[in-house]
């Protein structure tokens, strides 16, 4: 039986939920997927770091029984009060590094370094962190290719909903002209709650408590999170290499609660829409902005933390992918799907992804 040893970098909502999946469903996953998962290292800014590479690895159940804010690895055997990220990523024997620290939309750090260190150490990486992928995705993919490891990031767009794999695997032979979508769970949840009478501030607080929001929810509300997602998706489906400056961004602070409720009374729904399309000269234009959509529009009915992206193609017309856009468990599932992708790739060199990548190279 194949076993993958994991190092979890960041132990907040998402990586904790991944640890829960492994602790609670490890045996079922093993029987279904044909590989076992063992966590051998965890680092976190607040809890410190923990390493256990013998036996069954880190015993996850006792860690998960402690409230997140009270976790202190320094009290445990193999623990340290410091998040020894570089040493753990480079030196502790692990097969896969799961990176789920804060997204930094300015330069992607320190997650960018986490990904680089892992790849340079010959470890596969899966991440839900949008910063490194949006800002340095091309260079990181090339680095991973040179080191013979996988760099997977399904959870960066629409959390566990497999929009990136769907676009990569299912659109072969089609020309994609562009896409538009509701790609932020927090802002979409907030708009719905404001529509039903809550203040913006209270609605944001709810989204934070539900685990949808970024550490700084300004990124959700002002559209910077969607900006990064548009850059990632445009890279994947349009082959574009966009910088943040290429994606003008207007957020929800352009709207008042009255605007949102008045629109609803007039049969319109405000949505924070991210879009990109290919111009006739082949270049790509993209933007993020709130749009008042008529209720019959496909994106108008996308509610709460649900997201949807409508892809405009030549042979199929518009193809819409909808599903959860945020949530701890949903995003942990994206990491699991990345691990499955790594397993498929390493065990079947003729896997769909490998063949598609070879075709594109
Ligand atoms: N929660 C979601 O719905 C969701 C969905 C998709 C993508 N994401 C992305 O996944 C990542 C994690 O999200 P989350 O909800 O778990 O966030 P979170 O804030 O709950 O957890 C992040 C954890 O990372 C730790 N951390 C931050 N910087 C660190 C560092 N330098 N070294 C070690 N640990 C560090 C923090 O202490 C925290 O515990 C973020 O980048 C987020 O944008 C989240
Ligand atoms: N904060 C993000 C998480 C998913 O990327 C959202 O609300 O969509």
From TrEMBL:
EC number: 1.1.1.3
Keyword tags: Amino-acid biosynthesis, Methionine biosynthesis, NADP, Oxidoreductase, Threonine biosynthesis
Known catalytic reactions: L-homoserine + NADP(+) = L-aspartate 4-semialdehyde + NADPH + H(+)
Enzyme class: oxidoreductase
Protein's pathway: Amino-acid biosynthesis; L-threonine biosynthesis; L-threonine from L-aspartate: step 3/5; Amino-acid biosynthesis; L-methionine biosynthesis via de novo pathway; L-homoserine from L-aspartate: step 3/3
Family per record: Belongs to the homoserine dehydrogenase family.
Domain Homoserine dehydrogenase catalytic intervals: 162-340
Gene name for this UniProt entry: thrA
InterPro entries registered for this protein in UniProt: HDH_cat, HDH_CS, HDH_short, NAD(P)-bd_dom_sf
Top-level lineage group: Bacteria
Protein name listed in UniProt: Homoserine dehydrogenase
């Amino acid at each position: 039986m194949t076993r993958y040893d994991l190092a979890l970098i960041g132990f907040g909502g998402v990586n904790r939920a991944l640890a829960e999946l492994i602790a609670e469903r490890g045996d079922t996953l093993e029987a279904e997927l044909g590989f076992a998962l063992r966590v051998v290292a965890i680092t976190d800014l607040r809890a410190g770091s923990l390493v256990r590479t013998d036996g069954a690895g880190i015993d996850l159940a006792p860690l998960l029984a402690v409230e997140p804010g009270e976790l202190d690895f320094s009290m445990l055997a193999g623990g340290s009060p410091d998040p020894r990220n570089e040493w753990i990523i480079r030196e502790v024997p692990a097969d896969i590094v799961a990176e789920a620290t804060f997204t930094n939309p300015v330069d992607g750090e320190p997650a960018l370094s986490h990904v680089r260190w892992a790849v340079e150490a010959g470890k596969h990486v899966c991440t839900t962190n949008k910063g490194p992928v949006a800002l340095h995705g091309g260079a990181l993919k090339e680095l991973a290719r040179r080191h013979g490891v996988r760099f997977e990031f399904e959870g960066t767009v629409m959390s566990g909903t497999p929009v990136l794999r769907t676009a990569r695997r299912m659109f072969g032979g089609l020309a994609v002209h562009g896409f538009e979508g509701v790609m932020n769970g927090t802002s979409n949840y907030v708009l719905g709650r404001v529509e039903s009478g809550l203040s913006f501030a209270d609605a944001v607080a709810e989204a934070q408590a539900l685990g949808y929001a970024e550490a700084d929810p300004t990124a959700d509300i002002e559209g910077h999170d969607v900006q990064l997602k548009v850059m990632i998706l445009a890279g994947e489906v349009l082959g574009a290499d966009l910088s943040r400056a290429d994606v003008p961004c207007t957020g929800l602070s352009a709207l008042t609660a009255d605007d949102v409720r008045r629109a609803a009374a007039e049969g319109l729904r405000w949505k924070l829409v991210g879009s990109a399309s290919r111009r006739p000269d082949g270049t790509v234009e993209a933007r993020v902005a709130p749009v008042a959509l008529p209720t019959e529009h496909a994106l108008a009915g996308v509610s709460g933390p649900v997201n949807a992206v409508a892809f405009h193609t030549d042979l199929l017309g518009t193809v819409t992918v909808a599903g959860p856009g945020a949530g701890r468990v949903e995003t942990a599932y994206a990491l699991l799907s990345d691990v499955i992708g790594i397993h498929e790739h390493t065990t079947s060199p003729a896997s769909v992804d490998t063949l598609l990548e070879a075709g594109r190279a």
